[in-house]
Write a structure and sequence with these properties.
Elements lengths: L7 H9 L5 E10 L9 E5 L5 E2 L7 H14 L3 E6 L14 E8 L3 H12 L4 E7 L2 E7 L4 E6 L2 H13 L2 E6 L12 E4 L15 E6 L6 H9 L5 E4 L3 H13 L4 H4 L2 E2 L11 H18 L4
Parallel strand pairs: 8-9, 8-11, 9-10, 11-12, 12-13
Antiparallel strand pairs: 1-2, 1-5, 2-3, 4-5, 6-7
């Protein structure tokens, strides 16, 4: 299996590009401490590499075997592992149960359309129909992180977010940050009052990382007026108090200002770029979970 294909858009894009038969495997229900949630996808071609995963390796080998058997006979099937499973010799060490649907020969056009919607930052649904019994799941785009700032803190957060699977956009006066690997895009910032490009959506987190806080007011005002689920800004509590006063003078309400996560991160006073990045990324993931983005 290829663990770089962990988000549905990656698995679906992999499937849409195949020139051979394949089976799409979906987790229908999960109980206990299983690694993956309902809706998790795996694409199993009739030969070669696999995209996605369902467990932490304890049952994936058998899932692949069962999926290729389904491709061969062309018949969808249900699988159950753990409690109540017919596979008595396959144990889920974490307990619980995983119920799956294996769908051979799903229409490539349906798969491609779903992948395209997610790539376009839109929700998309798939139906897994076995004999008229339909399991439908709504998939959401990858989390996106827009970082506006300069310096090593930006680079550290961008690197960790890319490796975690975020779509990462960096906006900075520092042109060398455009060389960071894996960015979705880089936008140069040339003036503190320059409005950012309108690219936020409900699955976007925005983080400002400037030591020169004169860059912040217009960027924060734009972020707070948009649909992003998280807006954060680097700096101490004293810095944030000054920031709040400046934003109040610009006409923002206390309700708007209270949306800003600051001091940023879940661990206070991080003075190392990489550790600050871990703290900030954890804060963003927690906010995404609380707001239903995960």
């Amino acid at each position: 299996m290829n663990l770089t294909y962990h988000h549905p858009v990656d698995v679906l894009s992999f499937a849409a590009a195949l020139d051979m038969r394949f089976a799409m495997v979906a987790a229908e229900a999960v109980t206990g401490g299983a690694m993956r949630a309902p809706g998790a996808l795996m694409c199993v071609p009739e030969s070669g590499g696999v995209a996605g995963y369902i467990s932490n390796g304890c049952v994936d080998a058998d899932i692949i075997y069962q999926a290729r058997a389904a491709i061969k006979d062309g018949v969808p099937r249900r699988l159950r592992y753990g409690e109540g499973s017919p596979f008595k010799d396959i144990v889920l060490p974490c307990g619980g149960r995983i119920d799956l649907r294996v769908m051979p020969d799903m229409q490539n056009g349906v798969i491609a359309a779903c992948a395209q919607n997610l790539t376009s930052r839109q929700e998309a649904s798939l139906d897994f129909d076995i004999g008229g019994d339909v399991f439908s799941y709504i998939y959401t785009p990858k989390l996106s992180l827009r970082i506006a700032g300069r310096g090593e803190a930006v680079a550290a957060l961008a690197r960790q977010a890319v490796s975690t699977g975020f779509d990462v956009i960096v906006q900075s006066p520092d042109s060398e940050l455009s060389l960071l690997s894996g960015l979705k895009r880089f936008d140069p910032l040339n003036d503190p009052s320059q409005p950012p490009i309108d690219i936020d959506d409900p699955w976007t987190a925005v983080v400002l990382m400037f030591h020169d806080h004169d860059w912040e007011p217009h960027l924060l005002m734009a972020a707070l007026s948009g649909p992003s689920f998280y807006v954060g800004a680097m700096g101490s509590q004293r810095t944030h108090d000054i920031r709040k006063e400046a934003l109040t003078n610009m006409g923002l309400t206390n309700q708007d200002i209270d949306r800003i996560h600051a001091p940023i991160g879940i661990i206070p006073s991080m003075r190392d770029g990489n550790l600050l990045a871990v703290s900030v990324l954890a804060d963003i993931v927690l906010a995404a979970q609380k707001s239903g983005r995960l």
